[in-house]
Amino acid sequence: VTELKTAKKLFIVAIDAGHGGEDTGAIGYRRLQEADITLAVARKLKAQLDLIPGISAVLTRTGDYFIPLRKRIELARKYQADLFVSIHCNASRNHDATGTEIYFLSLTGATDEASRSLAEKENAADMVGGVPPEGGDDLLSILFDLRQNDTVRRSSELAEILIDAVSADSRLSTRGVKQAGFVVLKAPEIPSVLVETAFITNPREASILKDVQFQAKFAEHLSQGIQSFKAMRDRAVGSTATPTGSSN
């Protein structure tokens, strides 16, 4: 029994490399593909997290293949993930656009028009892979929203910690924490964030995105942020836990 309890104490992080297979994601400067960069960063983040005692990381995809958006959530649930981190690259028609931003789920609407457009574009990934959109159920939606509120709060805390962590890299400017209705962030019980690493359409940022050392450093910053979030969560759990006497 002790062994089982110890095993369950592992803090599991599901890392989701955005896009894959026929869904290449954004095509950036010099034909750089978003799906390739996200997988490279995700693999490095897993390697970093697996070095931290008490933390174990799993990947939603380990190669260049398509996974429907809701299947990514199902995989996180299957692994009993404590966190879900989706890795992406930003893109813009304006090739001067730069920066890193981190999203958590909005239940009411996007932070701004650009965030809404980005979520719509990412949520259309299923159509690229031939997956039909799902219809809604009003009662399920209400129950979902009620449960989601606490998860959204924790997702917000995670996003703030991670944006602080990646801002340590002087090569990046940060665009802050934002909200939008990304499908992959909708696991009601798992704090979830979507990380837009940098703009793949910006020549300078595209060159650092494909740099292996930058990928490793970015992954290291994210892993440090995740470790900080876990430590904060552990302190909160410890402060609310009170010894109880036997009633028998």
Keyword list:
globular; about 45% helix; 8 helices; about 250 residues
Number of helices: 8
Helix percent reads: 40-55%
Structural class: alpha/beta
Biggest pleated-sheet summary: 6 strands, mixed
> Going across the major beta sheet, what is the strand order?
2-1-3-6-4-5
Q: Identify the overall geometry.
A: globular
Distance between the termini: 22 Å
> For the CA atoms, what is the radius of gyration?
18 Å
Poorly predicted regions are 1-7, 244-248
**Mean pLDDT, all residues:** 89
Strand percent estimate: 15-25%
Helix-strand pattern, N to C?
HEHEHEEHHHEEHH
Tally of DSSP β-strands:
6
How does this model look, in words?
- The protein is of the alpha/beta class.
- The protein contains eight helices and six strands.
- It has a six-stranded mixed β-sheet, sandwiched between helices.
- Helix 2 (34-49) links the parallel strand 1 and strand 2 (55-59).
- Helix 2 (34-49) packs across helix 8 (212-240) and helix 6 packs across helix 8.
- It is globular, with a radius of gyration of 18 Å.
- The relative contact order is 0.20.
- Mean pLDDT is 89; it is low at 1-7 and 244-248.
